[in-house]
Amino acid sequence: MESLFTFLVNASAGISLFYIVYWIFLRNETFYNANRWFLFMALISAVLLPLFPLKYQVIIEPENDAAVLKTISDTFKHIPVVSGTEYESQGFNWQQGVLLVYLTGASIFLLRLLTQTFILIHLIIKYRIKSLDGIRIVENEKYGLPFSFFNVVFINPKFHKQENLPEILAHEKVHIRENHWFDLLFIELLTVIFWFNPFIWFFERSMKQNHEYLADKGVISMGHSVARYQALLLNQLMGMQIIGITNNLNFALNTNRLKMMTKTKTSALGRVKLLWALPAVALLLFAFAEPDYKVLSAQKVLSAQNDENPKTMVDFSGQKEITVRGIVLDEKGDPLPGTSVVIKGGTRGTVCDMDGTFKLDVPENASIVLSFVGKKTVVDSYEEITSGNQKGDTFSRKYTMKDAIEMISNSSYDGDFKTSYEGELLPPPPPPPPPPTKEAVPANGKTPPPSRVMPGDEEVFYIIEVMPHFPGGYYARQDYILKMQQKIAQAEGIKGKAKVFFTVNAKGKVTDIKIVEKDNDGAAKGAVMLVSGMPDWTPGKQRGKAVPVKYLLPVVFK
């Protein structure tokens, strides 16, 4: 809905700007064909520029912020589940009201267009098409004024004498030969879409008026008397416009139209005024341009940092090394297979095997960093490493990884809430640890499984080959979060922070919603509403198969 509103507003701004350019610089000039093309191309540009905006690239370095949306392990499986459907909004908001008004107006004008077309088709069927001087005509008794519709001319024999027909047919012949019907059909369709914008109606009038200028010019160029032709037009002065999608002989019949027939032709230099369209196009391109965010890979960031500050990356080449054999356990003493172990400031690392053990060669005076999703990162300095049990050049170490998140279980709520949310823009996800080199492998040479699965449980992954994909990507997800956050905060008066845990299942649906941390019940409810309103994701994949993946999302209501 918001995308539709944005398009309508942007396109309406373009229509208004182009018409102002036409009205100020071009409406009184005699290069009618050039004006016709200006009016037509201006409308096309106003519609297409918002649909295909220019992109400008914005380079973003990945942040090392642990507070971003991230996957977590199966630890939170038994937290009570909160159903998001309890809090889905059932109210009628202002956006729905505006949409209803817009669709009602568009339906009325579409019905008007279809009715007018049906009437003319009915007249063609009723009175049949005849040929006169090579022109297809329909002699009808419904309308007094002559007009053309596509390649058919409608005439009422009761109101037009035989001696007036040559000028009338010559006039309508120009409309048919130059396919003015196409312009009219195009502008009529746009009036259905942009009926609320007064400038689209100004465009329609100017386009029809320019058609009449072209037809008048064509009649005079055929050798017809200007005075006689003007007298014929004046006789039609009291007539009324027939129908929107037709070219009418008396349309815009005023002193200005009569003057334009004899006005001195605009010089070729005067066509330079058409170039005023370029600043309008440039302004719209600038106004509609959208950022194309590009996140630098971890390798490029580290390389750039190394160039600017050599101390960021450490050159360990040529240094004496020691071997570290370690085991990584959780707080319960269970092994943590898949724990990443990397050298701080370097690019070498490994992962723990199925028993939680690892082996890594560490340069002298270097530290190692141990990280596991959902656990606090551990940094072990060279001094601490060398203080452990030693056997030759090999040191044995034991590490316990503590939970990074304190869980709560009181996450059942009552009440009726509207769906929304707002907060500060979350930074891009942190870069993954550097991949282990060929020489850095688990102690037993085996790759650990992604997670352990209890009998009867569905295998849920937290480190997989292809992560789930929010519709539109990372920044579309952030945009959704920001907009929803603001709506919840405003609609419900919610303030505070919460962390919500959920699973994107193998079908891409958000399930298993749980609150793991909250400032207050309002923040917890808002977080549930935010996640439950998410559209379906593209599911994550492991070895080419769609699998469920768990996420933790911190939210802030202001």
From TrEMBL:
<feature type="region of interest" description="Disordered">
    <location>
        <begin position="418"/>
        <end position="453"/>
    </location>
</feature>
<dbReference type="InterPro" id="IPR051045">
    <property type="entry name" value="TonB-dependent_transducer"/>
</dbReference>
<feature type="transmembrane region" description="Helical">
    <location>
        <begin position="37"/>
        <end position="54"/>
    </location>
</feature>
<dbReference type="Pfam" id="PF13715">
    <property type="entry name" value="CarbopepD_reg_2"/>
</dbReference>
<dbReference type="GO" id="GO:0055085">
    <property type="term" value="P:transmembrane transport"/>
</dbReference>
<dbReference type="InterPro" id="IPR037682">
    <property type="entry name" value="TonB_C"/>
</dbReference>
<keyword id="KW-1133">Transmembrane helix</keyword>
<dbReference type="GO" id="GO:0031992">
    <property type="term" value="F:energy transducer activity"/>
</dbReference>
<feature type="domain" description="TonB C-terminal">
    <location>
        <begin position="470"/>
        <end position="558"/>
    </location>
</feature>
<dbReference type="InterPro" id="IPR008969">
    <property type="entry name" value="CarboxyPept-like_regulatory"/>
</dbReference>
<dbReference type="InterPro" id="IPR008756">
    <property type="entry name" value="Peptidase_M56"/>
</dbReference>
<protein>
    <recommendedName>
        <fullName>TonB C-terminal domain-containing protein</fullName>
    </recommendedName>
</protein>
<feature type="transmembrane region" description="Helical">
    <location>
        <begin position="6"/>
        <end position="25"/>
    </location>
</feature>
<feature type="transmembrane region" description="Helical">
    <location>
        <begin position="272"/>
        <end position="289"/>
    </location>
</feature>
<dbReference type="Pfam" id="PF03544">
    <property type="entry name" value="TonB_C"/>
</dbReference>
<feature type="compositionally biased region" description="Pro residues">
    <location>
        <begin position="426"/>
        <end position="437"/>
    </location>
</feature>
<feature type="transmembrane region" description="Helical">
    <location>
        <begin position="181"/>
        <end position="203"/>
    </location>
</feature>
<dbReference type="GO" id="GO:0098797">
    <property type="term" value="C:plasma membrane protein complex"/>
</dbReference>
<feature type="transmembrane region" description="Helical">
    <location>
        <begin position="231"/>
        <end position="251"/>
    </location>
</feature>
<dbReference type="Pfam" id="PF05569">
    <property type="entry name" value="Peptidase_M56"/>
</dbReference>
<keyword id="KW-0812">Transmembrane</keyword>
<keyword id="KW-0472">Membrane</keyword>
<feature type="transmembrane region" description="Helical">
    <location>
        <begin position="99"/>
        <end position="125"/>
    </location>
</feature>
